[in-house]
Amino acid sequence: MDSTGTASRPSPTAADPPVPHPRVAGQRPGTGDRSEPRAARGDDSPPTSAGLTSAGLTSAGTVFAGPASASPASAGLAAAALVGRSEERALVESLVADLSSGRGGAIWLEGEPGIGKSSLVDALLARASAAGCQVFRGRAEELTQPFPLRPLADGLGASHRSADPQRRAIARLLAGTVVEQDVIDPVVAGAEKIIDLVDQLCAAGPVVLAVEDLHWADVPSLSVWYRLDRLVDQLPLLLVGTARPVPRRPEVERLKEVLRDRDGVVQVVGALDEAAVTELTAQLLSARPGPRLSAQLARAGGNPLYVRELVDALRRDGSLRADGGEMESDLPQDFSDIPESLGAAIGRRLGFLEESTRSLLRLAALLGEEFTVQDLTRVADRPAAALQTSLADALAAGVLAETGARLAFRHGLIRQTLSAEIPGSLRHALHNQIARSLARSGAGIGPVARHLMAAEGTVDAWAIDWAVTLPVAAMFVAPQVGVDVLNRLIHSGLDERQREVLEARLATVLFWTGDSLRAAEVAAGVLRFAKDPEVRGRMYLYRLRSASQHGDNGPALTVAEKAFAEDGLSEAWRARIRAWSAITLIKVGREDEAMRRARVAMAEGGRSGDPVAIGYAHHVLSHLADSATALVHISAALAVPNTDPDSTELRLILLTNRLAHLNNLGRRDEFDATFQETLRFSVKTGTKRTGRVQIAGAMGYYDFGEWDEALLHVGSLQPPMAPALRMAAHGLAALIAGHQEDWARLRAEVEAGRDIGVTTGDVRIYSGYLVAAQAIRAEADGDPTRAVELLTTWLDPGIGHDGRERYMWLPDLVRVALTIGDRDTAQGAARAARDDAGHPDAIIRQLLAADLCEAQLADDAPELVRVAGDFERHGWTMARSFALEEAALRLALAGDAAQARVLLSDAVRGYAAANASWDLRRADSRLRAAGIRRGPRSLRRRETTGWGSLTPAEQRVVDLVAQGHSNADIAAQLFTSPRTVQTHVSHVLAKLSLRSRIEIMREAGART
Question: Which residues lie in coiled coils (predicted)?
């Protein structure tokens, strides 16, 4: 158990509507949102001071935005976009028609470069815009792959200057130049905000979101795309992705397969046939090609881009002539100078440009697929006016195209060709120059680091100064990039102070992004030479926490002792280290020592005025107290202000632990409120601990008998998940499935859980759910002996801490063991329960479990009824029903049929409320064997489909959906998270056999 271990286990207004990106078609001149550059790439510079159209500089000095969806790759091919694509044309019409009616979907277009994927996207977005849909388009690039979420944020128009606060917030998070309070991981927080933004946009009307070149997309972008794909069943959202078949990245292939499995469309865009090539050429030349030209065009292999490049090359060479009604080539059919590759054809196109223009374009190629005029003026060190002629020529030649406020290469291959023409040594120098220029302009880590890492060789002094002064929080925007940059700079010529700052920063980034082992290694190195007491204190803490997290408790305590031996360490850091070392002492069973150490840490924190140290001390003491006292310590620790990752993380730990204690005390209302607060806070901070929060909530709702709610939060979990969380999720789902006799799901969840290695700690503790589920299956199959064998795993004498939640399974073990006459095992289970109850910090459930087991053995019906009453007072309805069932059986066997029948009816009402059909049938069967029947069946199984099957929470969500609210709006009104609302809506759609939110609105309206 890490320090997080538990004791048990605004809606948009009319004044500020969502701001759609400029539409594809039907956009009047001057209506484009020109004030929003694609700042999600980290461009924090002011608006461009000069812009260009194909005719030259504009008088207003800003770039006139063209159609938002016009891709550089298809410039000049708009008229020919769907030549030979009848199947794809029908698909586009079908998808847009579905979207217009409120049904979302997803399509994946795959094909080689130049085959026409972007042209198809152009056509789809144009059709969608004409149908009144909002359209957005982004693109992944190879050079920006290390910088998370850029394609999505860019496509959605996230900018520091946006009129939309959601877009501004996304831009701030991903730029890394502004430190957001309470945010631990800006990438995770940014992902949540992007999903919320799409959700809000969909509430305003159907949305198409296209992301091109997914083969280059960063993993967080792919993860968001996956999560959005899970939303298309309930939102009017059409996801469009394009990708090349190579490079083949496993994560991209998995995303494609997931889309296919979810009935998305995977369309391979193949080569054009001969007739289509002829038609395409006729459109380009306004005349049909003759036989000789057709034979030469056959070398294009049906690739539309190559066809165009060949036609343009021949036309520029003056090798085409009209021959009757056809256009013919003057060159021999086998003329050797006809380009043999697309690259060669592009080279010929570039050959017609002046060398000054080509030289400027080489610089532009280093900036990426798209760039601003201002960026280019910086790199070229020339005013915008001096670039007018060259850029106008490049636009006219089809090398560049305008995309909103930026210029872009018409195709990635053009940029690659130009970049390859620059000698290696010059390329490195230019990248260094670009990096320095961007750093001076105040750009975030993304754009600066991209060029800095591309500039091989000696690192200049400016780069070291830049990294030293850059806020450490900026590194979290692109943590791997931050690590790479810091590693490179650390191995450059640094003075001692620079080395101390940068290596300590490296340890911090590694620790807070999850690589605690590597962080500890770096921290150990820093401690060998660092002089700053604050740096030394933090490095000691990282080493201690890393060792403790990985079970190396002895080394962790040794690190703490070394820290205490340092005279220069501040009292605040001593207090923090002392508190965390006390957590380790608890793990090794030295609780009295942990108590003393925590109290010393409390005093040190008070003297030093460090609220975080005081909070840590309260956290330790909460682990050493009963649940009621623990809540007092947690409340005191929560008073710590959220000022940095340390205090934010502490707050999340405390809130999660508060959930466990409230569950242990049976304080249901407070549990609900704390769970929603914790879930919202975890999502806001961008922490990866959200999964822990959801599992804590699911466990509590399982105990309270709210199994729909438990499954809701299990279903809201997002991959990737730690093994312990996966085990808990599969185990809870399997156990509920067993109680509800959903054997297919139980089998699937058990199989998934078996893939997780059961070691020690939380993984083994949470495996109890899977074991209990398999025991139910064994009983249902008529093999109670096997059920006993499974449950006796918790009687292992050396189980120790791993058995802390066995109180949940021991009463069932007593029941089944007595059923097969194995009284020895039943007595062993009762002894184990009493041993747990005798622990000084035993929780109420452990005390009641011991009483229940002993009453079962003693056939003490009155005691069983008393225990049932205690369960009822704490809200543990299923445990209450179980105790009543046990009491009813004993009364029946004792001849008190009337009272037995009353208790049985009371028990089965509780089972029926949770749809626990297995428990209901078991109770009926056991009592029937004792001569007790409930009489006419007044209880019926709960509906599983239709309006009657909706839970109260689902009905509240339906009411708000019917009013047109987005998931984010509903979450705000219900004080929960958008993820929870998303799962609610998915359940509603499945239960009502509906396909979209629009249909929910329609059906709900018809019922009023």
Answer: none
